[in-house]
Amino acid sequence: MSTAEPLLEINNLVKHFKLRSPGLFGRSRGTVHALNDISLKIRKGETLAVVGESGCGKSTLARVITQLYQADAGKISYQKEHLNKKIQMIFQDPYASLNPRLTIGDIIAEPLVIDKFGTRAERQSKVSEMLELVGLQQSDAARYPHQFSGGQRQRIAIARAIIAEPELIIADEPLSALDVSIQSQILNLLMKLKKEQELTYLFISHDLASVAHIADRVIVMYLGQIIESGDSAQIFDNPGHPYTQALILAAPTVGKGKRQKGVSIQGETASPLSPPNGCCYHPRCPKMADSCAFDAPKLEPIGPADDFHLVACPIETKRHKQL
Amino acid sequence: MTQTTQQQEKLDVSSDTVLDVRNLSTQFRTQAGVIKAVDNVSFNVKEGEVLAIVGESGCGKSVSALSVMRLVPTPPGEITDGQVLFGGQDLLQLSNDEMRQVRGGQIGMIFQEPMTALNPVLTVGAQIAEALLIHTEISPAQAHQKAVEMLDRVGIPDAAARALDYPHNLSGGMRQRAVIAMALMCEPEILIADEATTALDTTVQAQILDLLIDLQTEFNMAILFISHNLGVVSEIADDVLVMYGGRLMEFAPASQIFNTPQHPYTKGLLSTLPRPELRGQILPVIEGSVPGRYDQLDGCRFAPRCAEAGDDCLGEIPVFENTAGQRAACIKLDHLT
Taking the domains of chain B in order of start, what are their residue ranges? Predict the structure, then answer.
């Protein structure tokens, strides 16, 4: 997987938001450092997951890639021209992401209309094909969003995302608004479609269990920075960064029995308005050394340089080298 | 023998049971007809133990909690049947004034979104002290002092200063700690937590779960913990009640629910969870969707989605119990052992 050509390459991406008090002459209230020096590659045919807690910048990243936001600095290179038009999104809330006044058929056909694809009849036949593909009935095309459950609506959103044969699908928390018994249905559907339609996913989620299930590679973000990246198995079976380790330990899991005391990390994420100096995680880190408060760590290989498991923690990389 | 224990005997509640809910039914009258949000559900919470009610949207878990506290919006809601036995009395028979004394006094409550439980124009300390001023005879200065102590106890750093802050000055996790402090001020016998960690980040959620377990041990307090998240429930619960469509599906000690589930719904739900052995593979599913309402009046509510359902699932479904205290409402389980 790691040798396939990149579909999309991001280098040193920066996105800041300036906050102002309300009013024409409102005072500046500081700058949110949403993305700081983000570099990554998305390779064709893979599922790249971005995980992190609120305020880590994962949704901002999606919006910069789709050019809903303009980056302040850095470069996004698409492998093909006009690739930016071949990106589709699936959103968290299927109640908010479908226009209630349009029929399902019109909603799903919309990317084709924008692409000026085919005749109306051709578009309708493509819609029928998509409906079957996502597990709905052809006759559903004439119905309206309110007639469907949350899981069915997410299927409609997925049909809309794949109809124009996109190169990249960005799914921003596509499961978290769904009931537990529906989540595995949608996970299965995403995996089936990826195989059949040769799709590439950027899967954004805070839910580690579903990420471990679907992702080929994983990027862990904290306060606008990438603090670890690697193959899914490397991240989940052998996490390198103390934050990733804490996150995996904190994820509620069935079957471990009642919680053992004292395993959770202390403190909360600092405000992205005033991120800490040095390592952004150092105020909460149990392994912190004095230098962590001053030196901003760089992503470095924690194992052999060619296995692409990168960790932004000199303490842990040094410890691994000594093992 | 005190009057309380006499009443307890009269109501036949075992001595370590704090809350005993029997045959609770709550319904909502809507334009689309009557919705039985909670339908003949019984459960009990023991001293110093955590009972979790788990289920998907519309299963009746929150309405059960609201019914216990008599906070079901009426109309359109109405508790139509059952008993809620607490402290030797049936809460459903109390007057509104008597119930107000119980709420926030002997029963503490915390909710999903801490900001909605806090008054934005009062300082955190003042709101926490308020519970004591209402429920006990105490001077405002003493109440404030106790509020600061409680804020410190729930892990808020620099509690004396934070007590003078307004809710918007605190982070989400700190707000939820403040709400927990408020709920604990009168040393309740039971704490009702409705999706109390759902809005929090994973690492903060873990801290709040640790705090709840800590407080439960320290105060020997019972907790009724409502959640949709099976992982969270598995990490905090002693007993688990699984609900679907307003009805009890299964009730058992947590280890039995998660290791030897009996009801097809519980089994199905657990099987759909992603887990390391199945990475990258197709997961088992429960077909269909969670219905918005239940038009089918008789029979098992889960039958339309149940792989094991047959004709006899459309009749009355008794609740079977085995010797280990595991109860399940499935007609196929009359052999439950």
Answer: 3-98+189-290, 107-187
Among A58, A175, A178, A180, which would you mutate to test the B interface (most chain B Cβ atoms within 10 Å of its Cβ)? A180
Of B195, B190, B194, B151, which is closest to residue B174 (Cα–Cα)? B151
Torsion sign (Cα): B147, B149, B153, B159: positive
**pTM for this entry:** 0.89
Q: Look up the CATH number of domain B3-98+189-290.
A: 3.40.50.300
Distance of CA A262 to the CA centre of its chain: 30
Distances (CA, A) of B184 to A24, A73, B105, B222: 45, 50, 9, 12
Q: Enter the ipTM.
A: 0.87
- The CATH number of the domain holding residue A86 is 3.40.50.300
CA-based nearest residue in chain B for residue A182 = B289
Number of separate domains in chain A: 1
**Which one of B238, B272, B289 has the shortest CB-CB distance to A149?**
B289
Digit-coded pLDDT (tens) for B219-262: 899 999 999 999 999 999 999 999 999 999 999 999 999 999 99
- Tell me if A53 and B202 make a contact (CB, 8 A cut-off): yes
- Give the mean model confidence (pLDDT) for residues B56-65: 91
Q: Does residue A249 lie within any of the structural domains?
A: no
DSSP B194-252: ESTTTTS-HHHHHHHHHHHHHHHHHHT-EEEEEES-HHHHHHH-SEEEEEETTEEEEEE
Q: For residue range A58-73, list pLDDT tens digits in order.
A: 989 999 998 889 999 9
